[in-house]
Amino acid sequence: MQSSQKRPRANSAAAAIVAALAGLAAYGLTGRAGVYAATGDSYPGALTAAALPVGQFIATLCGAACLGGLLYVVTTARPDTTGVIDEGTFRVHVLVERAAALWAVTALLMIAVSAASAAGADALRLMLSGAVIPAVAASETSRAWIVVAAAAALVAIAARLSVKWITHVVLLVPAVVAVVSVAVNGNAGQGPDHDYATSTAIVFVVALAALVGFKLAALVGPPAPELARRVLLLETLTGAVALGYGAILLVLLAGSALPTDTGYGRAGLGAGVLLLAVWLGDAITVWRRDLTRAKDMIDAVALIGMMALVAAMATQPAPRLLAHRFTAWDVFLGYELPEPPSVLTLLTAWRFDTFIGVGAIVLAGLYLAGYLRLRRRGDSWPAGRLVAWLAGCALLVFTTGSGVRAYGSAMFSVHMAEHMILNMFIPVLLVLGGPVTLALRALPAAGDSRPPGPREWLLWLVHSKVTAFLANPMIAFILFVASLYVVYFTPIFNTLARYHWGHELMSLHFLLVGYLFYWGIIGIDPGPRKLPFLGRLGLLFAAMPFHAFFGIATMTMTSVMGGPFYRNVGLPWLASIEDDQHLGGAIAWGSSELPVIIVVVALVAQWARQDRRAASRSDRHADSSYADDELDAYNAMLRELSRDRR
Predict the structure, then answer these.
(1) Per-residue DSSP letters for 482-538?
(2) Looking at the predicted structure, is the pLDDT value of residue 4 above 50?
(3) Residue 164, beta-bridge partner list
(4) Which segments cross the bilayer (predicted)?
């Protein structure tokens, strides 16, 4: 009976996909010539013009099936004692495996198609010629498709080899990277305000892919009745995020023109209407507590149509890019910096980060909610931990949204100050907050008869082999020290400094690496076995010479890290980018001592607190032993008196 119900749903989804492919192919054959004419590019021929939106749609849909499918498995699986997922979610696992393979193949083809479209050449002729490699190197989108192909292949291979729950959690990382890669190198990564657009696009494409993937996964492996509400709430949440961020992104990309005035804007409005209809249906269903999921097929068809419109938009320039005369600052920064940095400009030149900044606010809100829940329950939680976490989140918002980021994207010296804050100050505060311990105390346990929930997911993740490996003190030490040299003393920095997504990636990387390192030294949360206090202190001081040497090497270098980028930015009030780099080295050298002092104070305080607890336990044990000895002596005396009376 269940299989007979699935067949009409699968047929309807397949029909919607075929219709979307036909519509995109027709658009490519008939409407793409005007797109190339508007940008002044050469028309690459009908085959390439049609293959571009068709390939974009197939890859986008496969990426959504992978990312949403992985999230579906992670949030609905009932793993056994060995961590293997259950039979119900295995069907979704198979969907992820097959979609990832098709995703990788499509991405490989899109490397050449995108390069041919940018070069104005036929894709087949380009692939058969010797010019394909230079054409790919000249196209940012083609290089992004290389990342997609590699990440999708990794997901496909890993999904083929493992059916464990933790594997699906780990595969979320390459899946997110692949979903984001093309979006941040397309319209969102170009022109004025591309810093806002890039950060917004990151959240939008991830939320949209999660929503579409959840809907497709629910068609393949419908959730059990006790999980239906959880899945519906996640769909409603991801739909709301996609709707909000999509609206912001459309406003940014539409420019001064009304959305109804251009084909790009009309496609965006159409996609928004379909997404809004799906979200309203989910919200009403949640409110009515209707868990039959009768509208899943209709939602899937609507979202497939919406993805087709999004694919058409992604393969044509946004109106903002056509109606603007670009400056060097538009291309490399997205905003103007007419004044040199000062205390006032660093505090007031705000460009709020809609990705990391919003994430920091959400983390602060979740932590505060957990704290208040403990207080209402009558449990205590140290106020110092609350202050440390909130201070870390506030500092993260400031660092990524104030003039520190605005000037840090254009000047190496300010960037190095930003790096030190993200890598050495904020992680210390966040680690001292003990978020995992708070979550484990605040979140309710699922119980034997209910499916696993957030508390169980967190426990599995904390005690997984992956976390044990990354949080191993020596591994964390190597990541903390080596990544500093790998990023800055190799050509990697030249690429990351050029793009806003590169700055976002560096921020996340240094934040997470710093968190892992300090977790092993002053971490409160449960996890892998920690070193003794003297070992932690030694590990902390062992990292100091590496940072000092990095600062000194940067101060004495004759070449400029990220030189091509900083020269292209051409800040008129910056006299020398070489001197600015030397200043950045001095900042790296001088600012590494203050967080070490904070960590040493925290470590010594923890050490003293542990000694006091150990002494208290010893005293209680001694008092108990003394009382037992007195009782034994008293009983022996009574026995002696009893024998004398006889």
Answers:
(1) HHHHHHHSSTHHHHHHHSHHHHHHHHHHHHHHHHHHHHHHH--S--SPPPPHHHHHH
(2) no
(3) 84
(4) 53-74, 100-121, 141-158, 165-184, 196-220, 232-258, 264-285, 297-315, 354-374, 386-408, 420-445, 466-488, 508-525, 537-566, 586-608
Q: What was the pLDDT predicted at 30?
A: 84
Identify the CA nearest to 537 among candidates 468, 597, 610.
597
| b/e sequence 430-452, b meaning 16+ C-beta within 10 Å | bbbbbbbbbbbbbbeeeeeeebb
The backbone torsions φ and ψ at residue 164, rounded to the nearest 5 degrees and listed phi first, read -85, 155
All domains of the chain, ordered by start, with CATH?
26-326 (1.20.1630), 333-596 (no CATH)
Q: Do residues 379 and 392 make contact, with C-beta atoms less than 8 angstroms apart?
A: no
**Nearest-angstrom CA–CA distance, 510 and 508:** 6
**What's the chain's Rg over C-alpha atoms?**
29
Q: What is the number of other CB atoms lying within 10 angstroms of the CB of residue 217?
A: 27
Neighbours of 269 (CB within 10 A): 16
Q: What is the C-alpha to C-alpha distance for residues 500 and 246, in angstroms, rounded to an integer?
A: 19
**Both tokens of residue 109?**
């083809």
What is the C-alpha separation between 429 and 435, in angstroms, rounded? 11
The answer to whether residues 332 and 569 touch, using CB atoms and an 8 Å cutoff, is: yes
Angle (CA) 608-612-613 rounded to 5° is 120
* Dihedrals phi, psi of 557, to nearest 5 degrees: -70, 145
Give the residue from 65, 461, 466, 97 showing the smallest Cα distance to 452. 461
Q: How many CB atoms lie within 10 A of CB 245?
A: 23
Q: Do 171 and 155 form a contact (C-beta atoms < 8 A)? A: yes
Number of Cβ within a 10 Å radius of residue 273: 13
Residue with tokens 């991801």: 238
Contact yes or no for 337/406 (Cβ under 8 A): yes
Task: Check residue 257 and report its DSSP letter.
Answer: S
Q: What are phi and psi of 628, to 5 degrees?
A: -65, -40
What's the rounded Cα separation, in Å, for the pair 113 and 121? 9
Closest to 424 measured CA to CA, from 599, 242, 603, 280: 599
Contact criterion met (CB below 8 Å) for 520 and 474? no
Backbone angles phi, psi at 84, to 5 degrees: -80, 135
pTM above 0.85, yes or no: yes
Amino acid at 533: F
Average pLDDT, integer, range 203-223? 93
The angle, 0 to 180 degrees and rounded to 10, between the axes of the packed helices 165-184 and 140-161 is 170
Hey, how many other C-beta atoms are within 10 angstroms of the C-beta on 408?
26
Count of Cβ atoms closer than 10 Å to residue 23 Cβ:
17
CB 476 within 8 A of CB 427: no
- Looking at residue 189, the DSSP 8-state letter turns out to be G
Mapping DSSP to helix (H, G, I), strand (E, B) and coil, where does residue 84 land?
Answer: strand
566 or 645: which leads in pLDDT: 566
Supply the pLDDT for residue 123.
Answer: 83
